[in-house]
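Reminder to self: tokens first, then the designed residues, so the page reads top to bottom the way the pipeline ran.
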């Protein structure tokens, strides 16, 4: 019974740890490949705690539309708090935020 519970737990963790795209890709709009990471840990942005950010045209912006933990554990070796990753992104700059309608983290 313990082995069955362990296997169930492991399968559930593995399924949730995999990054899935946020939103739906719109083929009529351009797809950008941007750097994505924790704004506080890697992009030196001010803010309360950790949050997802992207670099667009050389400047870092907080992301709205998907979150830091929606794409795996941020504190893993290659998680957003420890690494700058590439992502396929659709969205627009709205004020001080980059509002995404599609966000797909690329394999490291």
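Designed residues (108 positions):
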């Amino acid at each position: 019974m313990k082995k069955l519970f362990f296997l169930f737990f492991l399968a559930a963790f593995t399924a949730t740890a995999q990054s899935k795209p946020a939103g739906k890709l719109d083929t009529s709009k351009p797809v950008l490949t941007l750097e994505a990471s924790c704004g506080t840990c890697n992009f030196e942005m001010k803010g309360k705690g950790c949050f997802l950010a992207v670099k667009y045209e050389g400047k870092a912006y907080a992301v709205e539309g998907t979150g830091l933990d929606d794409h795996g554990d941020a504190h893993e070796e290659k998680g957003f708090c420890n690494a700058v990753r590439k992502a396929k992104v659709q969205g627009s700059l709205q004020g001080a935020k980059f509002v995404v309608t599609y966000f797909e983290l690329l394999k490291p």
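The chain has one helix and six strands.
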